[in-house]
Amino acid sequence: MNVPVTILTALLTLLSPVTLPAQHLPMSEGGRSRCGIEIDMGRAHLTGLCLMLMEEGVVKASMVNEFGVSYVDFTYSPTERKVRLLSVNDRLDRWYIRRALRRDLRELMENLRRGQPQYTRGSRTYRLLPEQQ
User: Fold this and answer.
1) What is the pLDDT of residues 72-94, one digit of tens each?
2) Listed residue (21, 54, 15, 52) closest to 35, CA to CA
3) Which pTM was predicted?
4) Residue 105 exposure: Cα atoms within 13 Å on the Cβ side
5) Burial letters for 18-43: b for 16+ Cβ neighbours within 10 Å, e otherwise?
6) What's the CA gap between 82 and 76, in Å, rounded?
7) I want to staple 42 with a disulfide (CB 3.0 to 4.6 A). Which of 72, 96, 112, 123 is the partner?
8) 75, 106 in Cβ contact below 8 A?
9) Measuring CA to CA, how many Å separate 37 from each of 44, 56, 127?
């Protein structure tokens, strides 16, 4: 394969829309998932990992940055379609941010169940990315 075709193939792969299969949301008991996350909020940008575990019919998730500092710990009940925030980083711990996070995370998890790893509401965009090996 010559170099221009290889470069074109790599660019098309990078520019194609990312779709995560629905199994990235653990749906079986004891199922685990780990993927990258990007959160854009206008002037702020957060990146890190989203770690998920299915236990007792509820997805338990934690979003941490690259240094291991937790942004948000939450649970998601697929049957009730509810998100419960367990802990929020001090910088994000305001009632109006908690309300927005709860709503946005619920919609992000619902989108992930349908295989769409992104949710946008106004100036906020949440993006789940396949884990880089």
Assistant:
1) 999 999 999 999 999 999 988 99
2) 52
3) 0.78
4) 28
5) eebeeebbbeeeeeebebbbebebee
6) 6
7) 123
8) no
9) 14, 25, 6
